[in-house]
Structure formats: structure tokens, C-alpha cells
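Render this sequence as a predicted structure.
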Amino acid sequence: MREVNLLLEDLLNHPSVELVQSWYMQSFLELLEYENQSPEDPQVLDNFLQVLIKVRNKHNDVAPTMAQGVIEYKEKFGFDPFISSNTQYFLDQFHTNHISFHVLINQHTFPFGSDTNPAHLRHIGNIDPTCNVTGLVKDVYETAKMLCELYYLVAPELEVEEFSAKAPNKSNQVVYVPSHLFLVLFEVFKNSMRTTVEPYEERKEGTHC
């Protein structure tokens, strides 16, 4: 919340940024109510859990809403290299904190709530102590491939080369949050496929004409 208040006044006054500010303020006040309550009371713990889930769900739209605020600002005031650089630095910090909040909330709601996935019982909260990187890469590729084929009717193939100095005959495993790695890889694959396929489509259309 303090970082948001350091933004330019013109950007702060945009409706989208004001909306994000109000979400954080409301969530902060809701969580503060539990600062001095007993952690030994089961009802308190259950109420706290429900508040965390509510906060997590409400903040799902934080990233696109903040991005909309930046777009609105640029459309109104134009592009300034200095301001753009400062804004990008802020957005990097903002999104890092946003991801951290989600990790912490999920790490509580998964063990103590009903979010536990029976298919991933080896997880500690939302952390997989034996996350299979190659397997996850292939899963993400299949998801991105399906989206690419939906729009372009074609998708690049995937070739995976795996190297492990410690265990050459075993798949690489790391302690990680699979859901976040999935999101990062999905953006990489999606953008890469689009960059690969679109020039091919343009050449094909040019030949057809």
C-alpha cells in the first residue's frame, strides 16, 4: 500500500488504481481484526481461514486492473521514458509482492482448509518437494499447444533435453510451487508459439494473394 502511494498523482487518481488501493485497504483492515485474537480458538481459526480465502479470490483481478490503470494513464498523458522506467520498476515490485501474498495465503489455506487436492497429497501446502520440472514443462506445452491450435490450426512441436549433473539417469526434481511455474512457463510458451506461427501465417496469406 505504501508503494502504491509513491506513484505519480496523475496515475494514482485513475479509477483502476484507486480500485486496487481500495481492495488492499479493505483486505488489510479485515486481517487486522485477527491481530489480537486467540489462535487456540477453533472458531477464530476457521473465520480467519474464510477471510484469507475471500481476500485471495478478491485479489485475483489485481494484476489486470493495475495494468488497465497504467494503460489509461499512457493514453491520457502519452509516453515519457523517465516516468515509464519508474513505473516499470514499481510494477515489478508490485507483482512480486502480489505473488508472495498468494503463496503465503495458499500455504495456509491448503493444509487448514478444503483446498487440498487428493491427486497431490505429497504437497506441503502448495509446495511440491519433488516437483518434476520436465513433466511440468510437457504439461504446460500441451495446454499452450491446444490454445495455439485453436487460434492458428497449427502449433510448433516441442523438443526437451534434460541434463542433471547429480543424477544423470533421473528426472530433475526441485522444491517449488508448481502452479506458479506453470503460469510462468505458459506465458513463455504462449508468446513463443505466437511469435513462431504468426510470421508463417503472414507468408502463407501473401503467397495465397
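Summary. The mean pLDDT is 83. The beta strands are 128-132, 173-176.
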